[in-house]
């Protein structure tokens, strides 16, 4: 995962409704008709939120008859969480090491 993909997922999850949708899907796949009663907005608005989550790679959609079944894209979310841990903890791939090396070279 690169910083651009991390940012896209973060933006998708940065909306309280989309974060709540992800929370619901953490328990397992659901169709839009099962999700919608828990939100105070229309089905088209729910569809719009689902589109953002799908485009970011957070959610997968599978057609089952007339229903769209949504589930979390767990492999992507696992990589996202791992990337976040590295980003927040300055692991060996973090840009902070390059910055520190350059600062040391300038000082040296």
Note the topology.
Blueprint: H1 3-13, H2 16-25, E1 30-31, H3 32-35, H4 43-55, E2 59-64, E3 67-72, H5 74-89, H6 95-107
Antiparallel strand pairs: 1-3, 2-3
Task: Describe the fold and architecture.
This protein has six helices and three strands. The chain has a single domain, classed as Winged helix-like DNA-binding domain superfamily/Winged helix DNA-binding domain (Arc Repressor Mutant, subunit A), CATH 1.10.10. Strands 1-3-2 form a three-stranded antiparallel sheet. It starts with a helix and ends with a helix. With 108 residues, the protein is of the alpha+beta class. The model has no long low-confidence stretch (mean pLDDT 90).
Please outline what is shown here.
With 108 residues, this protein is of the alpha+beta class.
- What structural category characterises the helix and strand content? alpha+beta
Stated plainly, the CATH topology is called Arc Repressor Mutant, subunit A
Can you give the helix content as a percent range? 55-70%
Shape: elongated
What features would you highlight for this structure?
alpha+beta, 108 residues, elongated
């Amino acid at each position: 995962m690169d910083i651009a993909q991390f940012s896209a997922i973060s933006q998708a999850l940065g909306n309280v409704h989309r974060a709540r949708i992800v929370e619901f899907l953490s328990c397992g796949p659901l169709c839009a008709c099962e999700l919608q009663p828990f939100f105070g907005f229309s089905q088209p608005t729910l569809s719009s939120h689902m589109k953002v989550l799908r485009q970011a790679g957070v959610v997968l959609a599978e057609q089952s008859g007339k229903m769209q079944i949504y589930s979390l894209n767990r492999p992507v979310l696992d990589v996202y969480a791992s990337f976040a841990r590295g980003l927040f903890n300055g692991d060996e791939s973090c840009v902070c090491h390059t910055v520190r090396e350059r600062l040391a070279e300038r000082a040296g």
